[in-house]
Amino acid sequence: MPVNLSAPNPQDLHPVPGVQIGVAMAGVRKANRRDLTVVTLAEGSAVAGVFTKNRFCAAPVQICQKHLAAGTDIRALLVNTGNANAGTGEDGLVRAQTTCIALARHLDIAPEQVLPFSTGVIMETLPIDRIQAGLPAALADLKADNWALAAEGIMTTDTLPKAASRQVKVGNATVTVTGISKGAGMIKPNMATMLGYVATDAKIAPALLQGLAKDAADASFNRITIDGDTSTNDSFVVIATRQADHAEITSWDSPEGRAVREAVIAVSVQLAQAIVRDGEGATKFITITVEGGRDEAECRLAAYAIAHSPLVKTAFFASDPNLGRILAAVGYAGIDDLDQNLIELHLDDVHVVTKGGRRPEYREEDGQRVMKQSEITIRVGLARGTAATTLWTCDLSHDYVTINADYRS
Amino acid sequence: MPVNLSAPNPQDLHPVPGVQIGVAMAGVRKANRRDLTVVTLAEGSAVAGVFTKNRFCAAPVQICQKHLAAGTDIRALLVNTGNANAGTGEDGLVRAQTTCIALARHLDIAPEQVLPFSTGVIMETLPIDRIQAGLPAALADLKADNWALAAEGIMTTDTLPKAASRQVKVGNATVTVTGISKGAGMIKPNMATMLGYVATDAKIAPALLQGLAKDAADASFNRITIDGDTSTNDSFVVIATRQADHAEITSWDSPEGRAVREAVIAVSVQLAQAIVRDGEGATKFITITVEGGRDEAECRLAAYAIAHSPLVKTAFFASDPNLGRILAAVGYAGIDDLDQNLIELHLDDVHVVTKGGRRPEYREEDGQRVMKQSEITIRVGLARGTAATTLWTCDLSHDYVTINADYRS
């Protein structure tokens, strides 16, 4: 059961001028499910992406990076679920390229203008015949208001499609930002999440887009973790079709630039948080803030140690205020000269630990009250500086084990 | 259900001349369970220890380090279960010292000659009145052949007591090495495990003992992980009562030195592996070997990434040869310039991956056959050097979640 998340209402997902989406059932792994998504972009669109830091990155990730680096205008995205085309060696690269060639022929563009994405089981051969056979149906389905179907078409073990959309005024124009994501497990993105796409029609100078993609990822997908497993296929793409009727944005340091940038980041954060809310087996949405660090890096060490501790995660699943486990995680996070006698710990509004020990005033029933909530904030103070960071995670439940023990069955 | 582990037969645990053990029920946390263990050491014994690297180390760990550093002969160990006396601030330190003072009075020694150990729930006040009240019963129970009871007396969520013992000839003397350990969860020891004690009557030069403790920990407790959580209380102690009738061992580079050293390490390895076999919810004992690394450090990075991946661990629980998860873990382990196209993967005798991709000859049923075993070896080749490492871990099952969601209830 996702935590305070519901399927997006298709009416709430504003089409982005210049973006068309088609979804089909290609039987990549299972029959009768939407597993093939084609996105076409109008001429003049700018595209940027950030990708997994996993050294064992999937074939489509390698092809995406190559095509983006080539500098040719990207005109289409091709996404399949059911098969990650990772751990597939040279053969996997050829197969990913073959799908780009097939889609490019249909669209009369060059293969380098296609970005391929795959998600699903690792180390199995990508069935390109089925993908090629599914392309005509996906192309016949191309329309501007297909975002909800696309959100469904990229799911794996997600229980709900994930999408977000908003509009902002830029000059006299109304600019749209709409995006979709998928996640569920193997989620500790490193520069991006499993799959995330955010498109806008804002007329953003192409040179600004890669920086925006990085900033948006750092504020959103790079702040979430479910199980600490960084996927082989993480990809996050920001698209600007540049069709909105306003003066080109050439700097973020203007009212128009700020408005668009904030909208893109807000949509990215909503999509990233949706991944945690629908994390495999999640029953709680947990915000972890570590403050008082010397730099953000050490705050992140402590926050990830808490977020990845199976003991912390199972205690939250059980609504058990066994909060010493949080202290233990901070202790082994790798901050070498940490003084344990300065640590403070709050659980929402409840001040649990002061100067490294349990506060005499702390009462277990207060911790218990907070632990029973579905949304909880853990706040740790290191009292050694002014840096801080925040990330989002979920608990570890029986369902996580069930889902991952059964994923391929 | 522990993996190929049974309770030790008390008759197999050779007493160590110079060591006496008494166990009592003190009601530290629960009534009617053995939770207080006293170990006394004959005059002239040498003691060395290695302790958790967790910055949030428990009060007894801090006292142990202080007492060992003081250089006074250690004459007694005091171990309680049910309460870890961690995250307890200044008050916890005073309480740990108070228990040392109480035991020292009974034994007519100095408090600095006592090493205190606590294991159990974090962040709760140590009930020193109950421990003090339990001391007379523990002291009345002191005897040489109480190792099996002591192994029981230090358990927390362990389902079985853990002990190992062996004898070796040194000159004309028969030297004994006997030890006990406890573990279960919060196990990724860093220089030691939750609690491990190995005693020998070998006449080891005291100056050699600290090096032996470190080497034995590195070969055993520092090669195991259950959930990646490094405890606040990890302690591993090596005792030499020096009562055996042979020439003093002043170097490991002699037949006698090697025999004793190997026996201490063998007992330590057996105790460490027993912790994994009885890991919380464990159904499989997994040996991970990473070879072909440039140095051991990068082999350890990859091995721990595999061992800590919830996705790998749940796949092993399910006996599902979803082996791409192992490649993904190697990929995000943090070896920056790893070439994925060189990776090899064996599962026991089955060669699964070559040059980063699935071998054409690999058949799923071969992987399935190995995955169904209760003992499995994962062997990863990095093909970039000659370094290697091995560690031991277990799977992640529903019972792990159940145990840790219910631990305090």
TrEMBL record, chains A, B:
The record marks T119, G120 as: Involved in the stabilization of negative charge on the oxyanion by the formation of the oxyanion hole. Pfam families: ArgJ. The record marks A192, T193 as: Cleavage. GO terms for cellular component: cytoplasm. One of its GO terms (molecular function) is L-glutamate N-acetyltransferase activity. GO terms for biological process: L-arginine biosynthetic process; ornithine biosynthetic process. Keywords: Acyltransferase, Amino-acid biosynthesis, Arginine biosynthesis, Autocatalytic cleavage, Cytoplasm, Multifunctional enzyme, Transferase. InterPro entries: Arg_biosynth_ArgJ, ArgJ-like_dom_sf, ArgJ_beta_C. Substrate binds at T156, K182, T193, E280, N404, S409. Its main location: cytoplasm. Its EC number is 2.3.1.35, 2.3.1.1. It is found in: Cytoplasm. The active site is at T193. The keyword Transferase applies. Pathway: Amino-acid biosynthesis; L-arginine biosynthesis; L-ornithine and N-acetyl-L-glutamate from L-glutamate and N(2)-acetyl-L-ornithine (cyclic): step 1/1; Amino-acid biosynthesis; L-arginine biosynthesis; N(2)-acetyl-L-ornithine from L-glutamate: step 1/4. It catalyses: L-glutamate + acetyl-CoA = N-acetyl-L-glutamate + CoA + H(+); N(2)-acetyl-L-ornithine + L-glutamate = N-acetyl-L-glutamate + L-ornithine. Heterotetramer of two alpha and two beta chains. Catalyzes two activities which are involved in the cyclic version of arginine biosynthesis: the synthesis of N-acetylglutamate from glutamate and acetyl-CoA as the acetyl donor, and of ornithine by transacetylation between N(2)-acetylornithine and glutamate. PANTHER family: ARGININE BIOSYNTHESIS BIFUNCTIONAL PROTEIN ARGJ (PTHR23100), ARGININE BIOSYNTHESIS BIFUNCTIONAL PROTEIN ARGJ, MITOCHONDRIAL (PTHR23100:SF0). Belongs to the ArgJ family. This is Arginine biosynthesis bifunctional protein ArgJ. The gene is argJ.
